[in-house]
Amino acid sequence: MANNVIVLTSGLTGSSVLAGLISRAGYWVGDNTMKKEDYDTYENKELIALNLKLFKQAGYRGNYLLEFSPEGMDLIEALHGSVDAEPYEQFLKKCQDHQPWIWKDPRLWLTIRYWKNLLDLQDCKFILLTRGMMQSWVSATLRRQIRSYRSLKTYEKRIQDSVMDFFQESQTAYLHVRYEDLIRHPAATINRLNAHLETRLTVEDLKSVYHKPLYENPRASYKNYVKAALIYLKNYSERVDARAKTE
Hints:
Oligomer: single chain
Number of domains: 1
Structural class: alpha/beta
Strand content: 5-15%
Order of helices and strands: EHEEHHHEHEHHEHHHHH
CATH class: Alpha Beta
Strand order of the largest sheet: 4-1-5-6
């Protein structure tokens, strides 16, 4: 039986493409997944609901898309043994009934230290997915997540460092995948994925979920760069890093 897969990443890193690709190898993504306007995120709606439940039970009210919160992670991890674990255990049982499964939800970098107490980590393979900082900044700004490039870089690095600490603490097998490598060098990156997951994915599988040109750096268009810059300048006083200085 293949190992289950957990993708740890922030938002807007191309994780839907990666999860969609991996699902082609027979990994269960859930009965219902979150759909965006023009694509499937491959995020299990039950997992999302339970992660939000953990936020509520821990009293975490921050915005995980904009802030790195060690306090939030600590509060959520401390829930183990102090809240009713049955909903989470029942969800895990359901996942195991559909093994192998894949989890992908950007909230997981905050909640994984709770889930680790319920998971059989030896039965899981982890993937850290990252994306080029400038592409992330453009994507975030177009979605009205207003912050400076430096602020975004700090946020992303702290998440990545936290995930790497988790891998070291839990001694789990993981693979670091860069989104740009998957698109620009698909065969080589998929070979690395196959070696890590013991799958037989192909470039054709990637083409079935990614409908833009391969073998090119997936950069934002010049139009989107300009649009992001104008949005940032228009909302400069409302940027995340400016608000943080006044709080």
